[in-house]
Amino acid sequence: MPELKVMYSRQQIAVRVAELASQITHDFQGEQVTLIGVLKGAAIFLSDLSRHIELDATFDFISVSSYGNEKQNSGEVKLLKDVDQSMEGKNVILVEDILDTGLTLSYLTRVLEAHKPKSLRIAALLDKASRRVQPIKAHYVGFEIPDEFVVGYGMDYAERYRNLPDICIVP
Ligand code: IMP
Ligand code: MG
């Protein structure tokens, strides 16, 4: 196991995730929301975020594959699993681990817009704004980070390290 340096500790993550959840609670007061997690990286973020959201909420999951190796996204995105329920007329929040080049989320935004939601927002735990290829912004961002490869709290390197409680930098 390589030496992994902590970028954000579990305590820092917990504080920030609760803040994002209260922002969402405030923004959608009196309404229902549907959280759509992007598998697998966003699963832990969604489970923590959702438990702090004080609204009538439902979950769904979507799965995509981006061709390329672990660190390099080739830009091609393929939908492996669509949502189970209709999104028509719903307040949809796409929950993603990292907004990097933006290719995945701009593709998913197009897929979900086709379902005619009432509103569509993006919650990204991490934002690597300097890496953006597609001009896309998240409404809710946990942390803006520099161009480093990170793992933990759901995020992987070749499927490993998702279970680490802290967000760590891969050297
Ligand atoms: P995008 O299409 O380039 O925005 O890619 C976003 C996806 O790439 C994220 O959902 C992650 O799965 C993956 N990704 C990007 N950067 C990292 C990283 O530093 N660690 C782990 N996965 C990453
Ligand atoms: Mg991902």
Structural account:
By secondary structure, the chain is α/β, with parallel strands linked by helices. Helix content is 23%, strand content 33%. It is built from three helices and nine strands. The relative contact order is 0.21. It binds inosinic acid (IMP) and magnesium ion. Magnesium ion (MG) is lined by residues 38, 41, 97.
Bound molecules: inosinic acid, magnesium ion
N-C termini distance: 11 Å
**Strand content of the residues, in percent?**
25-35%
Helix share bin? 10-25%
Shape annotation: globular
Q: What kind of sheet is the major sheet?
A: 6 strands, mixed
**Based on DSSP secondary structure assignment, what is the total number of beta strands?**
9
The strands making up the biggest β-sheet line up spatially as 4-3-2-5-6-7
Order of helices and strands: EHEHEEEHEEEE
Structural class: alpha/beta
Round the mean pLDDT to the nearest integer and report it: 94
Q: How many alpha or pi helices?
A: 3
Radius of gyration in whole Å, from Cα? Answer: 15 Å
Poorly predicted sequence stretches spanning 5 or more consecutive residues: none
Q: How would you summarize this macromolecular structure in one to three sentences?
A:
The protein has 171 residues and is of the alpha/beta class. 23% of the residues lie in helices and 33% in strands.
Helices, strands, pairings?
Layout: E1 5-8, H1 10-27, E2 32-39, H2 43-52, E3 56-66, E4 77-81, E5 91-99, H3 103-113, E6 119-127, E7 140-144, E8 150-151, E9 167-169
Helix pairs in contact: 1-2
Properties at a glance:
three-stranded antiparallel beta sheet, alpha/beta, 171 residues, globular, binds magnesium ion, 3 helices, binds inosinic acid, 9 strands, six-stranded mixed beta sheet
